[in-house]
Sequence to fold (620 residues):
Amino acid sequence: MAQRYQRVALIGLGLIASSMALAMRRAGLAGEITGTARSRETREIARELGLCDQVFDTAAEAVKGADLVVLAVPVGVMGALAQEIAPHLAEGATVTDVGSVKQAVIDAVAPHLPEHAHFIPGHPLAGTEHSGPRSGFAELFVNRWCLLVPPPGTDAEALARLRALWEDMGAHVDEMDAAHHDLVLAVTSHAPHLIAYTMVGVADDMRRVTDQEVIKYSAAGFRDFTRIAASDPTMWRDVFLTNREATLEILGRFTEELFALQRAIRTGDGDHLHAYFTRTRAIRRGIIDAGQDTDAPDFGRMMAKPKSGG
Amino acid sequence: MAQRYQRVALIGLGLIASSMALAMRRAGLAGEITGTARSRETREIARELGLCDQVFDTAAEAVKGADLVVLAVPVGVMGALAQEIAPHLAEGATVTDVGSVKQAVIDAVAPHLPEHAHFIPGHPLAGTEHSGPRSGFAELFVNRWCLLVPPPGTDAEALARLRALWEDMGAHVDEMDAAHHDLVLAVTSHAPHLIAYTMVGVADDMRRVTDQEVIKYSAAGFRDFTRIAASDPTMWRDVFLTNREATLEILGRFTEELFALQRAIRTGDGDHLHAYFTRTRAIRRGIIDAGQDTDAPDFGRMMAKPKSGG
Fold:
């Protein structure tokens, strides 16, 4: 594949940025990769792993001479970071981000950037419950979507170049506006995460069900919730605080619907329950047909070996 | 492995019973396997697949001469089934079930069974979102738990034999009483399933987010919910109607907790959110350590091939 940028600066070296570094390097998409992270420990691990060609102690140094700057930090610190790097950006550099919320990032970042820079917010819909520089892998974006949210008047060439980078890392790219992005993600990601966090917290609290039992018997459905609820706490705190309106709206709808199902259980309305469960089954079929999951029984999880016996 | 029963009758030939048939046959655990199902179509598929040595049209015929009878039908029809088979049970036969709720099954089944039969309710914590006779596979129970709920005074030899059968199919076996089982499962399975059904229903309802978007972007967290919410509607209707009290209690706790987190989002209480999310992360670690899931990023799901392009 062709080189897309001469010098890419990765600010923040967690799961997404480290995966980008590995994916770009594997496909030869960047002439040089620089990086930095706020924590000294993360920078040292990145150096040890050789994630980047150069790891700098500050974002200001890392962005110098870069034609692509990737902001890969929690949404809540994007604004301060933009302010810090703005004076050091190369003429005509593209600045993108990988945050899970888009309107709040635009509001925080755009005012700081110089006229000559191209700001094209982005969001790869990919991740695992792991975080940090060691958690990255080059295949993370393969067959996953990356949503770009170009502001009106975005330079067409800069947009095409960023799109090509994501496609070369294996992603499918879509474009949409920030408000729609934030609503779609509230439905497909933010509300489900809060719900999973809540359910895992409830299980942890139940005094009559020991932790040990919750863990031993997790295969019965709860396990999928714990995976979601193991995601990075700082990242998710910021997601909820910055996509507040859309998340609360979806949670309101969720609660309304949950109450209706609870009432059906209480009153013994089996027809209501059966009709509801039949409807939700169809959505799953659509996801498998769209290639966003496999139809294999139990996703091969049965292969997990127990470390402790019965 | 040794033969555990001379003749096993499987009543209902869905995911669990068909997996038992395959697992028992592979390990030579049953001299003969008979089966039946209410629907003619299911019986025909079972015959075509050769799941059992003999597929009968009625449960009364299927149980004749069996030393183990497995009730593998939705919880709501267990009582009527017990009444139907009771007069035909062999002297000293063991009757077990695989229902997800235990007290309701005991209340429905026990009164019908003759004195000479050993009734030992059971519940293998294993399954996929698929159902029907074609969905079974011999490895379904490997490394999974099977909970047995022997009533006080259960014959020790009959219990040991049933336990050995499950262990020979690869399961770990635990024993507990029915009330505790129903509460533990309300936490680890029943409430999570209802929550997943609810969230998938909400997504389906959102008019400003198209079905197509929900499906395309499901990898962001929602996908795990859809898998859970694709489970058999009849089975789950019966679970909620028969484990009503415990499920409603957990859902009440869940709602309380969800409201507290919603308030934290609304008021911008990031510390509360961060502390909560940090606590839930630890549970996940426990599940991986206990061997009930793998630590592999994304469970290899990234290997799914999309059937439609970008």
User: Anything to note?
Assistant: Strands of chain B lie at 5-11, 30-36, 54-55, 68-71, 94-97, 118-119, 122-124, 145-148, 172-175.
